[in-house]
Automatic annotation (TrEMBL):
<feature type="region of interest" description="Disordered">
    <location>
        <begin position="155"/>
        <end position="176"/>
    </location>
</feature>
<feature type="region of interest" description="Disordered">
    <location>
        <begin position="876"/>
        <end position="927"/>
    </location>
</feature>
<feature type="compositionally biased region" description="Polar residues">
    <location>
        <begin position="912"/>
        <end position="922"/>
    </location>
</feature>
<feature type="region of interest" description="Disordered">
    <location>
        <begin position="284"/>
        <end position="309"/>
    </location>
</feature>
<feature type="region of interest" description="Disordered">
    <location>
        <begin position="837"/>
        <end position="856"/>
    </location>
</feature>
<feature type="compositionally biased region" description="Basic and acidic residues">
    <location>
        <begin position="284"/>
        <end position="298"/>
    </location>
</feature>
<keyword id="KW-0732">Signal</keyword>
<protein>
    <submittedName>
        <fullName>Uncharacterized protein</fullName>
    </submittedName>
</protein>
<feature type="signal peptide">
    <location>
        <begin position="1"/>
        <end position="19"/>
    </location>
</feature>
<feature type="compositionally biased region" description="Basic and acidic residues">
    <location>
        <begin position="877"/>
        <end position="894"/>
    </location>
</feature>
Length: 997
């Protein structure tokens, strides 16, 4: 089965890349999986691979000269090909693949494994971070290698300085100082000097440039002025670790009777690190030492305890390749003195062979007399009785720490968050399914955290991902297994699976056993299951179901997440105190109100006097009409409305607006219509329509009615942006932004602005939509009006303003849409202006040198880009004193027609292939047909490639959930992106007549 997973992952990854390829200039998605990382001397360059093996890319000359590879002191064997799947082997990639030279390993490393790679005269060493490979990572090398540990040294030892003449105490003597220094390791940010074990363990102080440095308890050194004493913590022996030195630094290291000193020559090179002749050692005067002949009390020792007994301590060396060894910090352990060994409260049994030790509560002595024990993990306890005395430790931060009081570690586990409500009959509630392309990026889940603190702070809680050694037998539990819900623990969360078949409230919790065999039970979280259609909205919108906030207002987490019935009268009034209505608290997960229909709404929700309501992550279907009146306020945030919103009599609506920080957002769309009646206020908003793009279940719109219709006198406050849908279908127009009826009047207040964009952009629209339709209505006020029409692919561009009516605002920017038959800024001379300054520009036939999207058009999801707004403002500034006349436009940007039989004027450009031949022509040339065919082929190819990617990703999600758990969210995102590309490609191909509806 592993080969299937490997194949599927390759297909999924290839699909991710294909999903990021621009097809026909329509679809784009960035993807990157390999980031280079330059290490010291440019030896290590980058890393790449998959979940079976990985390759560390290195300097070519270095790879060609590699003689040996050691891991934790054991020499590994060179493998004959790159198909490495087990530990103990490596493969030298000498330019056989396109990514260059490197060394390949199986993905079998553990945290803190030490790798040493040698050539004839160089040695490269580094520490691994463990088996944490993630092919989706932005920096694979940094994920697997501790870059701060990288050391590149010459194998030849530093030259020894002259010993000098014999001197009295306190001065340099004849003792060979170089014997105290075994090796110098320089890395990216630190220097480690490996020294004589006894010397390191007796170091009392270190001075650099006559300034005393402080000892740090942990090995993570980043600042000058600190050092760390490594007293045998790793396989390379004792030493002192410093932050980077500077050339000329004078270092003095003191014990109680010795002083070792040297001057730094080259801080980046181990061979020339110490200045020649500067390494000295001298005895510290006996006068400063206590008289050994005098008797002295030893207050630190217990009665009857000798100094030798007091100094006994143990260290633990982890070696995943050989054995895990417990030994004395000084001297050799005498196995005859080992009386009892207890790990995590369990007495260990001696066996004859170290190979029988692992994970079986056993210990053994090797042939060399080493005490081999099971692997220790964080917070594991160890007690050893040696020569009649008991020694107790906790294993923390990769070393044994004395635990004289035998303190026990008490773990706590908590579930954080809440489950979304469910409905009886819901299938595949884990968020993905094999028979459908419906995938949720946020499965129904809560996070799991743990701590070893008795009174934890927020920062003490850590993610329980199941990778650590603190717990065994971790499982999620539900109070009623007959509910059909299966809670599953995986990588720091509990998610829900199964098919829901029972109504009720079910409790879910986590149970685990810690290393001391104690059972830990988390808090319990409720999962609510409802029966669809049973609950009416008026019975649910009550204070008992709300959460009260500090301001005395309320929030409602919608339960159940789908409500189809309102009341007996099918009208419900929103309570005045309800300020927020949440469909969910997770991105891309929505609550649903009403039912799918393209008919007129039959259910009514009233936001009336005193109400100020924000919808968050809601789908409001076509059966629902929302009435905002009598001073009520409605805010739409990350929600979609398929029905109708009617605003009147002081009612106010804001779309894509966050009232808490006064910012325009995105995520909410209008797929129905907003109707503004007398007294309505349209506040700060970014309104865009997806009416023909987003369907209601099986219902698909073919709508070219305006996004907003004005039927009375209304006000615009602050900045408002409105754009019609591009995806016009069945030869309909791109959607108009705004229509003002015979009794309609839009007042744009001072310092306010109204931006209107007709739907229509490149290949998405045949006939561009008008920005503003005046059906006998008026636009007034001291603010700014912008009206930019939509583009038409094969037929007509839209008009900036069409119909009849009057415009009397302070300033206006009006442009017709581009197309084969360009639209007008002003469609007729029945559009009158009164005191309005600004500019009007007719549309044009685009040329190959024109941008794909006009520079003044709103083409992104969020409000128009700053550069779009700046371009419009610049044009208004240039024309600030220029009155706008009714017709024709100030500027005509159409391409001039070439008279038959004459040469083209200099500088004339070809038109876009999507618009046919030059203006006035009626037959497409061969090159244009060829370009269109190529575009169609690219779209079909994109659909096929992304279908393969979806199948591959879903195969992995269903058949190898544990293996792909670290990249699960990214695989799901891949499926979402691929689905979007397929859907967009299908819509375009339908418009081009290549596939049937």
């Amino acid at each position: 089965m592993k080969n299937k997973y490997r194949l599927a992952l390759c297909l999924a990854l290839s699909g991710a890349i294909l999903a990021g390829t621009t097809k026909g200039g329509v679809i784009s998605y960035d993807s990157s999986s390999i980031i280079s990382y330059a290490s010291q001397n440019k030896i290590i360059k980058s890393a790449d691979g998959n979940f079976l093996s990985f390759t560390i890319r290195m300097n070519e000359d270095f790879v060609k000269n590699i003689k040996s590879v050691e891991v934790n002191g054991k020499v590994w064997e060179s493998y004959h090909n790159g198909q490495i799947t087990k530990s103990g082997y490596y493969y030298l990639s000498k330019g056989v693949d396109y990514q260059g030279y490197g060394i390949k390993f199986a993905n079998k490393f553990k945290k803190d494994d030490k790798v040493v790679i040698k050539t004839s005269d160089k040695q490269l060493s580094f520490t691994m971070k463990g088996n944490s490979f993630n092919s989706f990572s932005d920096n694979i090398l940094n994920d697997i290698v501790d870059m701060a540990s990288v050391s590149f040294t010459n194998i030849n030892a530093p030259s020894k300085p002259d010993p000098g003449q014999k001197q009295p105490d306190g001065q340099a003597g004849t003792e060979d100082a170089s014997k105290y220094i075994k090796k110098i390791e320089t890395s990216l940010g630190t220097t480690t000097i490996r020294m004589d074990d006894d010397f390191v363990k007796s170091i009392e102080s270190i001075e650099v440039n006559e300034k005393k440095w402080k000892e740090k308890s942990g090995s993570g050194i980043s600042d000058k002025g600190l050092y760390y004493l490594n007293k045998g913590d790793d396989a390379d022996g004792c030493g002192v670790k410093f932050a980077k030195f500077a050339e000329g630094d004078r270092v003095v290291i003191k014990t109680k009777d010795k002083e070792l000193s040297f001057t730094v020559n080259n801080p980046s090179d181990s061979a020339s690190f110490i200045k020649k002749g500067s390494l000295k050692v001298k005895n510290i005067s006996d006068k400063t030492q206590p008289d050994p002949s005098k008797k002295e009390d030893n207050p630190g020792a217990s009665q009857g305890e000798t100094p030798d007994e007091k100094e006994i301590s143990f260290v633990y060396n982890s070696n995943p390749v050989r054995y895990n060894v417990l030994k004395l910090s000084k001297g050799k352990l005498d196995k005859s003195k080992v009386e009892k060994l207890i790990i995590n409260g369990v007495v260990q049994t001696e066996v004859s062979s170290p190979s029988s030790v692992y994970g079986n509560d056993k210990y053994a002595f090797s042939r060399d007399g080493e005490l081999c024990i099971q692997s220790l993990g964080n917070n594991h306890s160890l007690s050893i009785t040696y020569d009649g005395k008991e020694y107790n430790y906790l294993y923390k931060d990769n070393k044994l720490v004395e635990n004289k009081d035998k303190k026990e570690i008490n773990y706590q586990i908590k579930l954080h968050g809440e489950f979304d409500s469910l409905l009886v009959g819901q299938k595949k509630i884990d968020g993905y399914t094999g028979g459908s392309v419906s995938v949720s990026n946020n499965p129904n889940s809560v996070s799991v955290k743990y701590t070893d603190k008795d009174s934890p702070k927020d920062e003490d809680w850590k993610k329980l991902d199941g990778k650590g050694s603190e717990f065994t037998d971790i499982k999620a539990v539900i109070s009623d297994p007959e509910s059909g819900i299966r809670p599953t623990f995986n990588y720091g969360s509990i998610s829900l699976e199964g098919d829901v078949n029972k109504e009720g409230t079910f409790q879910i919790w986590l149970e685990a056993t810690d290393v001391s065999r104690k059972k830990i039970i988390s808090n319990k979280v409720d999962c609510h299951v409802y029966k669809e259609g049973k609950d009416k909205l008026e019975d649910l919108l009550i204070t008992d179901n709300f959460r009260q906030t500090k301001d005395g207002k309320y929030m409602w987490d919608m339960r159940p997440w789908r409500v189809t019935k309102f009341s007996d009268s099918e009208e419900v009034i929103v309570p005045q105190g309800l300020k927020a209505w949440f469909g969910s608290h997770k991105k891309d997960v929505y609550g649903e109100l009403g039912f799918e229909t393209l008919e007129e709404p039959s259910q009514t929700l009233v936001v009336g006097e005193g109400a100020n309501l924000t919808f968050k992550r809601m789908k409001i279907f076509g059966s629902v009409k929302i009435i905002v009146k009598d001073g009520g306020v409605l805010n739409l945030d990350d929600s979609v409305v398929f029905g109708k919103i009617e605003v009147s009599n002081g009612g106010k609506i804001n779309v894509n607006y966050n009232p808490y920080n006064d910012k325009i957002t995105d995520g909410a769309s209008i797929s129905g219509q907003i109707v503004l009646k007398d007294g309505a206020i349209l506040g700060k908003s970014s309104i865009y329509s997806h009416t023909n793009w987003l369907g209601q279940g099986k219902h698909e719109n073919t709508n070219d009615k305006p996004v907003i219709k004005v039927e009375g006198k209304v006000k615009i406050e602050d900045e408002v942006y409105i754009r019609g849908d591009h995806a016009a279908t069945h030869s309909k127009h791109g959607q108009p932004a705004l229509e003002v009826g015979p009794k309609g009047e839009v007042e744009i207040g001072e310092n306010s602005s109204l931006y209107l964009y007709g739907g229509g952009m490149n290949h998405l629209t045949e006939v561009g939509g008008d920005a503003l339709i005046l059906n006998g209505g008026k636009i007034t006020g001291k603010g700014k009006l912008v009206a930019v029409a939509g583009e038409g692919i094969e037929k007509n561009g839209g008009n900036g303003v069409s119909g009849k009516g009057t415009i009397s605002v302070a300033k206006a920017y009006i442009r017709g849409g581009n197309g084969k038959n360009p639209g007008k800024a002003l469609e007729s001379d029945k559009i009158k202006f009164n005191g309005t300054k600004g500019t009007t520009i007719d549309g044009k036939v685009p040329t190959t040198k024109d941008p794909a999207v006009p520079e003044d058009y709103w083409h992104n999801t969020f409000r128009p880009l700053e550069k779009v707004i700046n371009k419009i403002n610049s044009a208004l500034e240039e024309n600030k004193d220029k009155p706008i006349k009714s017709s024709p436009a100030d500027k005509k940007e159409t391409t001039p027609v070439v008279p038959s039989g004459k040469e083209k004027p200099a500088g004339k450009q070809k038109t876009h292939s999507t618009y046919g031949t030059s203006q006035g022509g009626s037959t497409k040339d061969y090159g244009q047909k060829r370009d269109l065919k190529k575009y169609i082929d690219q779209l079909k190819e994109a659909m096929m490639e992304n279908k393969i990617a979806i199948k591959s990703a879903k195969f992995l999600l269903e058949n190898a959930p544990k293996q792909v758990a670290p990249v699960r969210d990214k695989l799901i995102k891949l499926v979402e992106n691929a689905n979007n590309i397929i859907e967009k490609s299908q819509n375009i191909l339908k418009k081009l007549g290549e596939i049937e509806d």
